[in-house]
Amino acid sequence: MISKKNNRISEINVGDNLPELSIPITVALITGGALATRDYFPGHHDKDAAQASGTPHIFMNILTTNALVQRYVEEWAGNGARLKDLKIKLGMPNYPGDTMLFKGEVTHIDSEANNVVVSIAGKNSMGTHVSGTVSMSLPV
Q: 9-137, superfamily in CATH?
């Protein structure tokens, strides 16, 4: 857990950095995420099939990445936050044995609408795995 605090829109500023979050990339995380999202593509759970397609190991699917982004910003924001929009772009794959490090920054605040936009990036040893923005409402 990143924060036990419930952030309020009146307590944050543009330029505030979210605490970093380190996620170990494991076979269980990748296969569990794929199966939970009913993504049965062999590259997400079968190492031999993944290697036959040219990758060194199984790799994370986009829905698992999406869930990790949501976890990252919602743990920072707290229980009073409501996710409004999430836009991500994938880059380098996540393979077992690596670690993804999330960083984020508040890039826009609309106090009248109680809306905050956070820019995020999740990087592994090969570079950026995911980047994007998350829009959420926060309590006053």
A: Hotdog Thioesterase (3.10.129.10)
